[in-house]
Amino acid sequence: MSVLYGKPESLNDVPFTFCPGCTHGLTLKLVASVIDEMDMGDDTISVGCVGCGGYMPWFMNVDTIFSLHGRAPANATGVKRMNPDKLVFTYQGDGDLASIGTAEIIHAAHRGEKFTTIFVNNTTYGMTGGQMAPTTLIGQKTTTSPYGRDAGLCGQPLHICELLSTIDGAKYIERVAVDSPVSVRKAKKAIRKAFECQMAGAGFSLIEILSTCPTNWGMSPLESLERIRTEMIPAYPLGVFKDWEEGDK
């Protein structure tokens, strides 16, 4: 009997512990599948950080280090510079990367560090209680914005892809989603291209993935997928913000 589908080798054989409907698990499966397809399982080093994404080291069957909150890009810089032949990526949420880690990610891109960041944006601090994040949408209710985010008090949501695409050292920047099978296939393709950009020595690459947080949004898994389509994508348009093609430097 032929096997039609199996667990990626770059994932540990353990159950995910994310909340029902959370798309962190799906995103990690995509990352692991790309690593397997590139035959890089023994040559990958992942860098985890604080937040729901911080569970990544328990699930990924690759060499992994863990960073302080927001500091994954600094650690990944050292790891990649000492191991230029390895595939190095950080796995970070919006409360981590777009808040306490903003300076780290901007300057890693500015220096053109040759690693990849997988940026999971669910517009909230998922692990610590659903507080407002820099990416929280205008009017979105959170535990620290119970009446909805007010632009006059808190500013507009931070758009990381648009920001980093203005930096010369950033070579490939794309925003994708995981709300449908079509979107999932596009997300996997984007992750692979970002990894290929890195291994070609071109520079910094980042894939932003619009993700769900049903628990803190107070929604069912299906409702949370619909929210990506109706609220998040209009605010965070999908697409390539800085492109890279094989052979580019």
Itemize the secondary structure elements and their pairings.
Layout lengths: L23 H14 L6 E5 L7 H4 L3 E4 L5 H11 L4 E7 H7 L1 H10 L4 E6 L29 H4 L5 H5 L5 E8 L3 H19 L4 E7 L3 H4 L3 H15 L3 E4 L7
Parallel strand pairs: 1-2, 1-3, 3-4, 4-6, 5-6
Antiparallel strand pairs: 5-7
Distance, first to last CA: 46 Å
**Oligomer class:** single chain
Major beta-sheet overview: 7 strands, mixed
Order of helices and strands: HEHEHEHHEHHEHEHHE
Structural class, from secondary structure content? alpha/beta
Domain count, please report it. 1
Helix content: 25-40%
The assigned CATH architecture is 3-Layer(aba) Sandwich
CATH topology (fold) name: Rossmann fold
Question: Can you offer a commentary on this structure?
Answer:
The protein has ten helices and seven strands. It has a single domain, classed as 3-Layer(aba) Sandwich (Rossmann fold). Helix 1 (24-37) crosses helix 8 and helix 4 (94-100) crosses helix 5. It is α/β, with parallel strands linked by helices and 249 residues long.
Properties at a glance:
249 residues, single chain, alpha/beta, 7 strands, Rossmann fold, seven-stranded mixed β-sheet
